[in-house]
Every structure is written in C-alpha cells, then in structure tokens.
Amino acid sequence: MESxxxxxxxxxxxxxxxxxxxxxxNVQVRLLDAGQSAPxxxxxxxxxxxxxxxxxxxxxxxxxxxxxxxxxxxxDVLTIEIEHVDARQLQAVLDAGIVKExxxxxxxxxxxxxxxxxxxxxxxxxxxxxxFVSVGSESALxxxxxxxxxxxxxxxxxxxxxxxxxxxxxxxxxxxxGKGNFVVKxxxxxxxxxxxxxxxxxxxxxxxxxxxVKEVAVMVVRSSTGEVRAYPAVETxxxxxxxxxxxxxxxxGKDATVGQRAREIAEKAVxxxxxxxxxxxxxxxxxxxxxxxxxxxxxxxxxxxxxxxAAETSQYENHLRAILGLPLGGTALKVPxxxxxxxxxxxxxxxxxDAILKTMAPAVASLTVPGATVHLYGKxxxxxxxxxxxxxxVAQSDAELHARMEPILHxxxxxIEAAQNGSSLPKALLPEGAREAAQASSSSSFSSSAQQTLxxxxxxxxxxxxxxxxxxxxxxxxxxxxxxxxxxxxLPAAQHLKRFNVPxxxxxxxxxxxxxxxxxxxxxxxxxxxxxIIAGAGGAAHLPGMVAAQTVLPVVGVPVKGSTLDGVDSLHxxxxxxxxxxxxxxxxxxxxxxxxLAIRILxxxxxxxAAMMQRYMDDMEEEVLGKVDRLSQQGWDxxxxx
Amino acid sequence: MESxxxxxxxxxxxxxxxxxxxxxxNVQVRLLDAGQSAPxxxxxxxxxxxxxxxxxxxxxxxxxxxxxxxxxxxxDVLTIEIEHVDARQLQAVLDAGIVKExxxxxxxxxxxxxxxxxxxxxxxxxxxxxxFVSVGSESALxxxxxxxxxxxxxxxxxxxxxxxxxxxxxxxxxxxxGKGNFVVKxxxxxxxxxxxxxxxxxxxxxxxxxxxVKEVAVMVVRSSTGEVRAYPAVETxxxxxxxxxxxxxxxxGKDATVGQRAREIAEKAVxxxxxxxxxxxxxxxxxxxxxxxxxxxxxxxxxxxxxxxAAETSQYENHLRAILGLPLGGTALKVPxxxxxxxxxxxxxxxxxDAILKTMAPAVASLTVPGATVHLYGKxxxxxxxxxxxxxxVAQSDAELHARMEPILHxxxxxIEAAQNGSSLPKALLPEGAREAAQASSSSSFSSSAQQTLxxxxxxxxxxxxxxxxxxxxxxxxxxxxxxxxxxxxLPAAQHLKRFNVPxxxxxxxxxxxxxxxxxxxxxxxxxxxxxIIAGAGGAAHLPGMVAAQTVLPVVGVPVKGSTLDGVDSLHxxxxxxxxxxxxxxxxxxxxxxxxLAIRILxxxxxxxAAMMQRYMDDMEEEVLGKVDRLSQQGWDxxxxx
Lengths: 642, 642
Prior knowledge:
2 copies of one chain form a homodimer. Chain A has 22 helices and 23 strands. By secondary structure, chain A is an alpha/beta fold.
C-alpha cells in the first residue's frame, strides 16, 4: 500500500514501538543508532541487498552529520525518535535534496531543543506558560563561560527579585527527564545551581515557581497541512523527575473543563509548529484551574504509550500516518479508563545480580491482572532508572482501573524496597513463581457450567472497601439526600449497590439548605467519573430535579414519604419534571429499586453487571417458586403460623 | 523476564502476529518455514551468532523431519502456526528429549488433522456435532485407491439413505478453507464427489446437511494444566468458503442464550484435548438455536484476529502465555463491538498489474475510518484468494460499528468489481487518492474552539437512516407502546433520539393483547444490543413493569393520560413497582423526557452523548435567557401580543 521508506534517527523504545506500527502497515523503516542491537533494530532487521551480513540500518550516532547523510540516502522521509539531534544537518540533507521530507521540520526541532526559545515562541502565540526570564545573556551557548557564569549569577538575583524564591533555574538545551533543572530555594543557592547547570557553558533561564496540583499531558498529531488532533488529556505522575504513571482520562472534580481546555491549548500550541508528526505537550494544572504549558516534545512521548491499547489509533501509527501524509487516525479512547506504569531499572546489574528480576517484578505481577499488557523493550542488562518497559492497564471504570493497578504498584513497591535493601524478592514476584501459581490455580479439573463461564468474564473489581463505606475513592454511583433523616429510607439503595460490587459514595446534599454544594456536586459529577446519581427527597422534593438540571448524568429520584400526604407530594414533585430535564422516578420510599435501576444503567454498557442482574432476577424467581412449593406442601396457613 | 526460546512451525501471518506478541514480552522466537522472507521472518530476523549472514531461523518445509529436528535443537518449547504438520516427528523430538515441550500435544494435532477422528472424539465426549458416518473403510489413507473408491461409492449411497440429500462429503485430512469438502446434491453426484476428493486415495466421511442460520466461532485458550478460558462467541461470515468478516459480540435475537452456550461448548471441547495453547472452535447455529461443532483448529485462528485490538489479551499473547505456562490473560472484550474484514487477494498479479492496488482498496478506505486498524502481512506479490492482511474496526455500539464498516465494505465491493471487469479503481481508493484527500480536508487553517475540539472526538455515526425510520437495524433504544393510539404521545421520544443521532426502533407491544410478543421482545432486547427500552402505557399501564420484569435493561416508563383520572392511574401503575423490579418513570405524557433520559443513560458510558446533552442543556439555557432579554426589551405583554 505504501512504497516509501521511512528513516528514523534513534532506535530506542520509541523507535521500537514506531517500527511495530510501521510493520503492521508494511512500511519499510531504516534506523540510525549507535547500538547494533538497539531495541528498534531487534524487531526490524533488514539484511542489506549487497551484503546479507550487514543490515540496511545505519550504525552510528544520530549526532554524526555523515551518518545522517547515509541514512537520508536510503529513505524518502526522515523523522526522529529523540529531539537531541543535529537539526542543522537535517536541514542540510533536506536542502541538498538527499531526502524529500523531514518531519517535524528541522526548524521546529531546533526551536524545541532550546527551551527558552520554545517558551518565547509559545508566549508570542498567546499560549500560557509560567513567567520566565533569561538569566544572563540570551545566548544558548555562551562563548566565555566564566563571564557568562558571573552574568548568570546576577541574572538569578534579578529573577529572584521579580519572582521570589524558590525559583526554577533551567538549562536552555539538553534538558529532559528533570536533567537540566535546578530548584534555587533561596538567593544564596544560586551559585550552586549555576555550577550544576554547566557553570556558564550553557545558556540558562529562570522560571517562576509553579506550585501545580497535577501534571497534565496531551498528545497531539499534526498533519503536514496543519490539521491537529488531540488525544485525551491525561494525568502524569512523576517520581524523581521521571514519568512514573499516566492515567486517562484526566479527573479533576473541582473543574470539569480542565481536560477540554488542556486539549485546546495543546492543539493551539502544536498548530504553531511546522511539519507533521506527533507532539507531546506537558502542562501544569494550578490550584485555581489555570493550565500552563511546561514543555513540548516533537515526537511520540512516554505519556502517550497508553494509546497503543487504549486509543482508536496509537500515537505511533498516527506519527507514521502524519509524516507520510496519510489521513490521521482517531484519537478517542476506546476504553473507559487506562493507566500506564513505567518499568524503570531498579538497580545496576553490576551491583545487584538480581537487578533484572527486581525490575521485572511489576511485569510479573501484571500477568495475573485482566486488561494488563506488558511491553518490554529488549534492552540489554539493567541500569538504575533506565526505561526497560511499561505496562498498560485498561478497565471499564476508574474504580476497576485502580483495583487492577493495585497488585502491580504493590509489586513495584516491594521490588523497590528489595533493591534498596539488597534483599531478595518474594517468590510470587519471580517469573517461576508466576508459572507455579498459574499451574496451581488451574489444576482443579475442568467443569463447564454457566457459573464458571460467567466467572471467566473478568471479575468486576473492586468491592466497596469496607462493609458499607460511604466514600469509595472512584465511585460510579452517588447517593445523595437532603438530610440524614432520609438515611433509613435510602440505605437499601446503598446495600444493593454493595451487593452488586458497585463502587459508590453516599452523602448529604440539600437543595434548599446547601444550594452551592448541590451545584458543585451536580456539575462535577460526570467529570469525577460518576455515571448515575440517586437522589432521595421528601415533600417539595426538589433535590433530584435540581441536580438533573445541572448534570448530563441520569438522575434517579426516590420520593421519600413525609408525615402528611403519604409521599404523593414527593412523588409528584420528583416525577412531574418539565420537558427537557428528566428524572428517573421510582416508587415512594423504594430506594431498593433506585439502587437496582442504577445497576441496570451500568449494565446497559457492561455485560458483567447485566449478568449479575440476570442472576439476581433468577434468584428472585427461585425464591418465589420456593414459596409456591411450601404453600402446596404445608397448606395455606404456613404464613400465618410463621 | 523469560529466557526460554520458542520455536514455531510456519511463519505466515499467524506466525507474524505471534512474533509481534512475543516481541512485546521480549521472548525469543525461531521460525521454520520454506520462505526466507516469510511474513513472520520479516519482523523477527535473528542473525546467527556463528555467521551473521545467516539467520537463526530454519529455512525449509515444516513437513521435513530433519528441519523439525533442526528447529527443535534451537528452542525450549515448540508450537505450530498450522496443523498440517508432521505430528509423528513432533512426538519424536519430544520423546528424544531434543525439545522439552510441544504445544499443543502432537497427539492432539494428529487427532485434529483427521476430521473424522476429531468428530468421533467430540461425540465420545458428549459434544454436539452434525450426524456423520464413515464412507467406505475407516482408514484415513486407503491402500488400494480403486477398491476404496468403489467402497466409498456404496458408502455415500448408504449415507444418503440415512441422511437424505444433499449431504456433505468430506475428506478426513488436508482440509481447510472449504478445500476437502464436496456437496453431494443427489445420489447420482456421488461419483463426482469421490473424484474431487482424491478418488480413493484419501479416507472420506459423510455429514448430514446442516442448514445453519449463522456460523459461530469461539477462541479458547487452554493452559497445560487444563484451565480453559473462552473469548466471546463471534459471528463469522464466509465467502467462497473463506472467512470474510468476523463480528463480535454475536447477536441472535431469537435466543439470548446462544453466545453463552457456544462458549460453554467450546470450553468443554477444548478441555478434552491435551497440551496448551489457543484453539479455534467453529460452530453452526441452527434455526432452532441448536449449536453443532463444525471443526476445531489447534492454534490461533482467523476468527480471533479481532482480539488484538478488541480483547483484554490477544489470542497470540494468550497462546504464548499458555505454551510457556504463564498465567493466562483476560479474554473479555474491552470495547462494546468489533468487526474484522479479511483482505484477500482480488486478482493474480501476473494477470492484472493493478492486482495489489485493488486488493488494498479496503485498507486505503479504512484509513479514514475512526477505530479501524490495518494489518498487512508483508506477502510478496498478489494471488487471488490469498490472505494479504486484515482490518479490525472497533466501535462503541453495533450501530456505530456497521456505519464504520460501510465505507470499507463499499471499497471492497468496488474493488471486486474492478478486478472482475479488469477496470481501474476510482482514485479515492488509491493510496495517493487518500493522501490528497487527507491534505485537502485539512488545508483549512486551524481554529481552536470548543466546537472544533468536540468534533475531534470521533463523530457518532450513524444517524437514523431516513427522517424517522422506525426500525434501525442496530438500535440502541427501543420505543414500545400498547397501541398506535399512544403514538402521538410517544413521538417526541423518537424525535429526540433522532435529534441526538441515537439509533432506535419503534413498535407496538401490548402487555394485555400480545403477552407472548411482549415476553419475546423483553427477553431478546439485551442480546439484540439494545441498551434501554422506553415503554408508554395508559390506565392500568402494565407494559413498562412487565417488560422490566423480563429484561436486565433499564426501562423508562411514560404514563399516558387516558380519558379519566388525568393520567394519575397510569403514573401510579408505572411508578409503584414492587421491590426488585424498577421502572424509571417520567412525567405524565412527557415522552420528551423519556427520550432524554434514554440519552442520559447512553451518556453515562459514552462521552460523546454526554457532550451532546451538555450542548442541548446549554441551548435550553440560552433560549430562556433570550426570552429574558425580550421581556426586558419589549415589556411584559410580548407574550400576550405574540
């Protein structure tokens, strides 16, 4: 379908996943990397036509102009796996007509390499970044380091006067995974930071301290003609400045617009750059909901690995499509929730002979987790902090996602501890432990039954943490009522949700006494991951309708019977909503049915809840048929005798 | 994580997808295949340590005992990509201790190779198959072909007396993709069939004609200790005896239990075989709901390709896990609906120079389809009927799936026609056509807005086919009412579903006058893919509650106002359901709210409906605020004047 050959500068894990996407579309790839058995080369060996002992890849540094030229001669389109490449050389092979296209444009790569220039570019395009200022001269590579360092010292002092301390001192170039950053806690520490950041050999800038509440990332694919498509906004969690986990979709209860705003900012930012391909936009979310762009990577990114299993088209395939000028693929999530955990080297192999085993512990643990996929990059040996692989988990809800992550994160913590203490791992976290467990768990002989097959559907995890915990951290259903006096009526809803393992929360929200709380609750519900709200109310009974007016979720209303009018007042107040805003009303005082209706709403999109509801209905039928038997055996007066 | 090396007999597309799964887990694979650049070898070149010009794979036939031995010497575990291998030789290398494990067991492979023995095995284990009988001697390889052919002729006549004609005459061995089968339409055609099937050189058997309504397949993964896990049942559609499309989940409105029963039969069947790995079980679904096993493949299967994008763990990874004794991965669908279309060669390259372009037309079309992933196998050249690749499409509903498939299937039909006529393809179906379209569609300059970003979510397809078609083929919502006299009240529900692009059906179901129809409707609703039922009723108003009693889906009840009691009778009849069976009741005569509630129920699990509902609510607010303005500008009597 596609005869053009793509060249990539770099053949690490990003290149490996790119090669995987290219193989699926049968697109030929040639790689430039110093490692003869670099991760990407392992799954893409192309024997040279002239000498089959040689591959068609180029062994060498992607900083070497001669090697870049060699690669360019073999391919139609050049792209990069890492932005720390010689952009001038890429421009040179393009200008010389050695290669037809380079994506992203060399000018874009150069702009992004210089983080100070990147920030100036963003601000010139009206995009939000933290306040920043050049420290010392505006040169990225000062000619006289001693003089530059002196100038920089004055620069930090000046920045401190504007921004206060702490402030971030940053190297303009060669900065990634936290390298090139220094937190200057007070004016006196400036010299330390300058020394750490090249002591005048590199240009620096200072950034106002941004006390973010979350780190957010958005992958964006851009066609060569400027079409941009954002993937969903995700939350990234860093540890020691390296990406640890990525969670999608982003949840932020305080402000339902954050995810959408992040995507808009990211698309707007990527639209300003030239050339095609995927870009990773990292942002800070501030307490007040403000979003600031931290930095942009002009390539597939660690925060987009999840797209392989969880999005319509992966970031790697979309990068390929973009640089080839093919139509872009869908960027929507195809699953309700997903999380990625990096597998980082936990120790150096020369210091700890079990370094690899310890590093792989979370991967071993994930083999028993439904919805988990392990990616190992085929890196040789093990070094502390090195990216060795990652795990992606998909789930049908946030609650299920977190429950599935739990054993993986637990294995990781155990392994980190073992690496720190030099102790050995528990057997269950070793590959042979996993094999033995697999064999033990399945050694019971086969019995085919509806029950067994039903259970072979992934079990729904988790259950409510404690017997009737009112606040699951990732609820699917919210039960609210105007007053604790309604609790006896509303409790059966909670008990039924509990019985069906539905994560829920239960709290008091009063329409008349806490209108602000009601508004906040209703408006944040969908963005917090809730899928249904059960609201109980008596008398004038405004709560269900007023909540329904401020959320897109289905709201189930329970009319609570008061001391007068037998609950008919509540019923009519809840059910007789005006056209436009529905409330799903159940019988007076019948919160059991409200709970069951919420479960049916979940069952509409999750066959496991549907199967559980079917079993519940079958049990009811059986119970009544039992009474039929009893009546025929013991006579009509058994009820009276009981 | 895993140091054992896996050997595979065969390196075609199944091997290629297996290698992809192995690479992700960094498991080393060695392949045996006659093709030096067979599909799997292309993405798994392992240079030989002794001579880098050679690969560690084995070039040769997987029927060659010497080559099997060579491969066995290189690996720890042997498996197969195709069952037409020399099972005795596999047993020999196992017995000689050259390799530690072979999966599935050679005895299983041998059993499955002989389809008559396979059927006898299944029937001995109480599994359902079509009636069959040996034709002629029970030998799989008769010694005297002339005598055997004569005996077979008598055998067919005898089978005809038992089963009637037409009947299926089948070769016991070397049968796949329809090869080895012959339909004997009448007794006189028996000799033709015997000639077509080896004329006495192969053993034959006859099978009673099975006039199935659907073909069904279930992939099952089996651990070496006998744990079995079925994937969902799927519908397979064959064309010219070759798999054309696979659709999951299976839908069969007449009998909601079919999918579950198919899985149970498949698990039970696979449990009877020895050794680990993935098995494909093909079944016939008969008019009366009976399921008959047609045949079983002891390996990953064309009908399981969809698992790569649509299941928690792909069949390829699960095959790998099974043969290595690792814990099995989840087999549940992670998306609501999926379809796979095979890309088969449409012409021979030596007869039609555009054979490849025509064959690739559906792949080109799929580049513009959200949720579509193309797999090309890297086969050289093009031959009619050859499996060149496949396309998997995922979607959030059956309706969306079929809408997404539409352009792909249309491209396929266009290309088939072009191949048959020797005409050329329309430009839009050529790769450069796709590129030009991509560039044209995105040449409008970028504008960031909530609107645009919202639309960059995959658009919800399809709309209701005609303006108010009452019978969408893949509805998500069913609107029912007891009589056409309720239609004026219920129509706004349909209009609102239409406005939100929700596929629905509308029909008459009366609790009192068509109780059987009501039962059939309610019980089949979930298995037909419906997610919500809206039921309108007046007076005694039993329909919503009686439907709710026979489905697990959420049922929305609309009380219809009769000539007496102002609709309060209907309201109370619908809302006051006993504990256990909820009906989501809306206001009297307010089917608008029933439609909107159904959309909210869909929105709970699909953010696109949620976004549309939010926009609808924003529009309502704006409309009222417009009236506020008008009131303040034109005075309080503008309503009266209007």
